[in-house]
Amino acid sequence: MPYTSTHYVQVDGVKVFYREAGQKDAPILLLLHGFPASSFQYRELIPILANKYRVIAPDMPGFGFTEVPLERAYKYTFDALATTMLAFTQALQLERYTMYVFDYGAPTGFRMAMAHPERILAIISQNGNAYEVGLGEAWIPIQRYWKEPSLENRLALQPALSLEGIRSQYIDGVPHPERVKPESYTLDTALIARPGNKDIQLDLFLDYANNVNLYPEFQRYFRQFKPPLLAIWGKFDAFFLPAGAEAFSRDDPNAISHLLEAGHFALETDVEEIACKILEFLATIIN
């Protein structure tokens, strides 16, 4: 089993934490996490994929163990996250890679792909949405905040940042919730609860509206560049519906979808199936 090491690198005024495994000269897989998680969500997937690939999973600013100095005055938007992650790839000299995106990692990664399409070998989107048909009813309170960014609507979203709110993202709709290990959502909750972090998350909730506004641009990228794309989806996800997975093929003839008997955090319950599908998918692209 390949060893996973942890590192920091200073980029864009940020001390980015990341996990890495695999041979340095192997094809690269870049894993971008989602809310409210970090690279920790890939702890079981990394060693499986690292037998054949160099796997790199950073923590985005505001998440995990990445450190953002107060004097940096970081503006927490998805544009900023993409800028920092691009700087991260440049610092590690990642010139061409397959991108695995999940949840927040999708609008971050799709921005990166549009900025440098020549770097993208393929995309794996695990519950990483780019279509309005993929937005579930769980977005209604956040959409209310987009339409009216009042203090009342902002405070109404705070329960989503509690232990119970975060735990629900892991277990709601999951056929086998007993497979979800409590350290996952417990660590997320502890890191989200750090001083000032809840406001960061509420700011990102508000800025997510700009991701939806960019959906047509993401779709234009898929039509123009047609990257090999695997949309692998927990079909019981209340946030991103299966229709979002199936929609990629409307714009990208090289897109395929696979639905899992899983929820939003599908890796917690179905890591073996996801890994097998990824390896099968990449075997057709990377010799």
TrEMBL record:
Stretches assigned to coiled coil: none
Domain AB hydrolase-1: 27-269
GO molecular function terms attached to this record: epoxide hydrolase activity
Family annotation (InterPro entries): AB_hydrolase_1, AB_hydrolase_fold, Epox_hydrolase-like, Haloalkane_dehalogenase
Pfam family name, one: Abhydrolase_1
Transmembrane segments: none
SUPFAM superfamilies from the UniProt entry: alpha/beta-Hydrolases
Protein name, as recorded: Pimeloyl-ACP methyl ester carboxylesterase
